[in-house]
Structure of 2914_t:CDS:1:
Amino acid sequence: MDEFTSLAENKQDSSQKNDDNLSLFKTIIRKDTYFVMSPKQLDRLKLVSEAVFKLANETLLEIINQNEVESWMESRYGIVKSLWKNGKTGINLIRIDFAWDQEKNFKVLELNSPHQVGWILSGLVEKEASADKIGIPLAPQPMFYANYVLKKLGPKVAIIILSPNAEYDLLASQIESLGGKAKIIYLSEVGFQDIIDFAPTGLFWRCLPGLIERSELIIKISNLRIPQIPSFEYTTGAIPKTYLLSKSDFTKNLNLLEQHKAVLKAGDSAGGKEVILGKNFKDSWEDKLKEIMNSNR
C-alpha cells in the first residue's frame, strides 16, 4: 500500500484549522505531510475500507474452495486452507494483493492479516480483527518476537532499517519494556557511526531487497563482528510475504526464490500502484483517496 494509505496514525487535532471535527491523517513516508478530512469524508473512506475488507475475505474463500490449487499457493497458504476446510476460521484478511508473474499470469501476491498499522480501523474491521473473534490466529503472542530478539542478540540491540516503519518502533519499545535497550538506526554512513557509538550487543536487520543497493556499507558493518540476525518477513503478520523483486534486479535476485513461486511486484509499484486490491479493485489507493477527498466537501 502506498503512503496515502498509512492511516493508522489517525488522530484528532483541534489546533488544525481550529476545528475539532476534522480528522488529521499522517502519512508514513512523508512524515511532514497530512491530510485533513471532514467527518463526511472520513465516513466515506471507512466505507471503502470495509468494502475492500469484505472483498478480501470473499476472495480468500474462493481460493480455499478451489478443488485444485497451484503448488506455490498450496505450500504458502496450505495451513489457512486446512483450517477453513476443518470448519474453523483460520484467519480474517484485511487485504489480498494481486500481481502478475513473468508470463503475465494473474497471481495472488500476498495475503495480509489484520493489524492496526496502515489501515483505517473502521467498525467492521475492528470487530472482525479482534483477537478473540478471528478463530485460530496464526500470529505469535505479542511479546514473542521481542523475547526472541533479546535471546539472540543480548540486552542492547541496534535495529537497522532503510525507512520509517511503525512495527520496528513497536519492537524497540517492547525490547525496552523487557529491560533491554534498543535503538533504531538508518542504514547510512552516519548510521555506521551511530552503531559504533551505541555499542550494541547485536544487530537486527530489517530484510528488504533494497539492501542489495547498499552492499558495500553492509560489508563494512559486518566487519564490526557484532552478532546479528535478519528480521522475519513481518513482525506482526501471520503469513509470509512474497519477496519483493525490483524490475532492474530481477535476474540477479531470482535465485532467492524458486521460479515457480516467484510472483512479481515491480519495485516502482511497491507503493500499491498497479496492484489490484480485493476483486477487480483496479484504482490505486492514491487515486481512490484523492477521489474521496475531492468529493462532497
The mean pLDDT is 59.
